[in-house]
Design brief:
The protein is an alpha+beta fold. It has 2 domains: about 100 residues, [2Fe-2S]-binding domain (DNA polymerase, domain 1, Orthogonal Bundle); about 100 residues, Roll (Ubiquitin-like (UB roll)). The chain is about 40% helix and about 10% strand. Strands 2-1-5-3-4 form a 5-stranded mixed beta sheet, with helices on both faces. The structure holds FE2/S2 (inorganic) cluster (2 copies).
């Protein structure tokens, strides 16, 4: 896929580890102009007759964000193309791949299949909201960096959000339980063994933090 091809050629002088760390922290590196254009087009599709945007307030990463939203607009579209939170990826856009996974009140949700209006008043967390500061990663993000758990990392934000939900609910999962918790996320590079290693290390770091 086009996005993956671009990811394989990071800018000169940037190590793979640094590049992946950037993706894991905010996911910005894989937002190509073509990718953004695709999303903008989707938002520009004529809506049902008479449908108009409504100004609503969303609680995103602990901040109150005011945004104009169409009745049929998905949370993924709002996050990426109106709030600029491009760490949340769009792959299948039909609840199959999990790369759009965010947390709503701490529970994983496919943002491509969630209407934005339905999450008013709920606590939405995206990959950008995980790190406690600019100089420190969330334990799950740090585990992924330390394990080098992804190849192109397009799927990483979704997997990381699922790992966060898993380790919050069960900080001592078996490998089998981790695999089950991550079964709603797909990786096109097929890097599942390393992803599971990351999940197990993430649980270890979360236990250490507690
Ligand atoms: S983009 Fe949402 S599940 Fe694939
Ligand atoms: S899709 Fe490339 S690492 Fe998962």
């Amino acid at each position: 896929m086009h996005d993956a091809e671009i990811i394989e050629a990071p800018p000169g002088g940037v190590s793979r580890r640094t590049f992946i760390k950037g993706v894991i922290a905010a996911g910005a590196a894989v937002s190509t102009s073509a990718y953004l254009f695709r999303g903008s087009q989707a938002l520009a599709v004529p809506s049902a007759q008479g449908a108009v945007e409504r100004l609503i307030t969303l609680n995103v990463n602990g901040q109150q964000r005011r945004v104009d939203v169409l009745p049929h607009e998905t949370l993924a579209m709002t996050l990426r193309y109106k709030l600029g939170l491009t760490g949340t990826k769009l792959g299948c856009d039909r609840a199959e791949c999990g790369c759009c996974t965010v947390l709503v009140d701490g529970i994983t949700r496919y943002s491509c299949s969630t209407l934005t209006h339905s999450v008013r008043g709920r606590a939405i967390t995206t990959i950008e909201g995980l790190a406690p500061s600019d100089t420190q990663l969330h334990p799950v993000q740090q585990a992924v960096v330390d394990e080098g758990g992804f190849q192109c990392a397009f799927c990483a934000p979704g997997f990381i959000m699922s790992m966060v939900a898993l380790t919050e609910a069960n900080p001592s999962p078996t490998r089998e339980e981790a695999a089950h918790a991550l079964s709603g996320n797909l990786c096109r590079c097929g890097d599942y063994n390393k992803i599971l290693n990351s999940a197990m290390r993430a649980a270890e770091y979360v236990r250490r933090r507690a």
